[in-house]
Specification:
275 residues, alpha/beta, Rossmann fold, 2 domains, seven-stranded mixed beta sheet, 7 strands, binds guanosine-5'-triphosphate, binds magnesium ion
């Protein structure tokens, strides 16, 4: 039997990642495995979560199995649930355990293009995926715009994204409402959006899997690059590394080396000239 397609979902906090994953995995609030979503000021998802495998058959009767992982939203306010430093650390810890790798990245974002969009893209596609994992963009919350359909949105806005390597841009709505009238409309939107995203997974996710953190060296290098990228975004001078200890601890736990060896490895990589 063919291997399932492994998909990693990322994007800034509150853009609708979990709402999309719940919908793709066919989960409603009363179901086991449904993950909480909310319009709160603080981020909701505080751990990466992998959903149970599900199947999708397209219009031509071809089917795929999909395993989808939702991640912690980045770019929270520092009073939020998971400040960026902690979010990056949890993400790396999770990825270091994800030895099967990924076939596809889904970047989720809202219609208005902001600086956080490029920043998230760089962190995942450029640094973590080393440009080896194909990526698609899902733009949520198109429902607020009566003028544009899901199919029209990507056509009308694709020129804003030419600097990015997105294989496809999908317009979507994954909202849910307790008000029955609104929910009737949202339900149809979710069904349409689900089909569009699953079809994009079908088309772009069938290549080889790539393990994003295959060894200790990659973990340290990736952490440094991610952290520097984050500092660049918040405008702090590069190489201001306060990460040595958490990183050494990760190496120690995951690869079972001594504390001293872990510290030495991290220090050598942080300051290669002193080696
Ligand atoms: N109008 C509208 N609201 C949406 C849509 N998708 C999600 N929402 C709402 O946006 C809010 C945040 O959604 P979540 O799915 O929790 O967002 P998230 O990206 O997982 O957030 P974090 O876990 O904090 O990173 C919720 O109130 C959702 O109901 C959409 O397509 N349209
Ligand atoms: Mg979430």
């Amino acid at each position: 039997m063919a291997e399932p397609i492994r998909v990693l979902v990322f994007g800034k906090t509150g853009c609708g990642k979990t709402s999309m994953c719940n919908t793709l995995a066919n989960l409603a609030p009363e179901d086991d495995g449904y993950q909480r979503v909310a319009a709160s000021a603080k981020g909701v998802t505080f751990e990466c979560h992998t959903y149970k495998q599900f199947s999708y058959s397209n219009d031509k009767g071809k089917s795929i199995d999909v395993i989808i992982t939702d991640t912690i939203g980045l770019h929270e306010h520092n009073q939020g649930t998971v400040p960026d430093k902690e979010a990056i650390k949890r993400l790396l810890e999770f990825l270091a355990e994800s030895t099967k790798g990924y076939n596809l990245f889904i970047h989720v974002d809202e219609p208005r293009i902001m600086n956080t969009q490029k920043h998230n893209y760089d962190m995942f596609y450029e640094i973590l995926g080393q440009r080896k994992i194909p990526i698609i963009l899902v733009v949520t919350k198109i429902d607020g715009d009566a003028e544009v359909t899901f199919q029209e949105w990507p056509k009308e806005n694709k020129h804003y994204y030419i600097e990015f390597n997105y294989k496809e841009i999908v317009g979507a709505c994954f909202a849910r409402s307790p008000k029955p009238d609104l929910e009737n409309l949202y339900k149809k939107d979710r069904e349409k959006s689900k089909k569009l995203v699953l079809q994009a997974i079908f088309e772009h996710g069938q290549g080889e899997t790539v393990n994003v953190v295959p060894n200790m060296h990659t973990l340290v290098r990736t952490s440094i690059n991610l952290w520097n990228k984050f500092l660049e975004f918040v405008g702090v001078e590069k190489n201001f590394i306060i990460w040595n200890e958490p990183l050494a601890q990760m190496l120690q736990e995951k690869w079972g080396i001594s504390k001293q060896e872990a510290r030495e490895r991290v220090n050598n990589m942080m300051n290669p000239s002193k080696k």
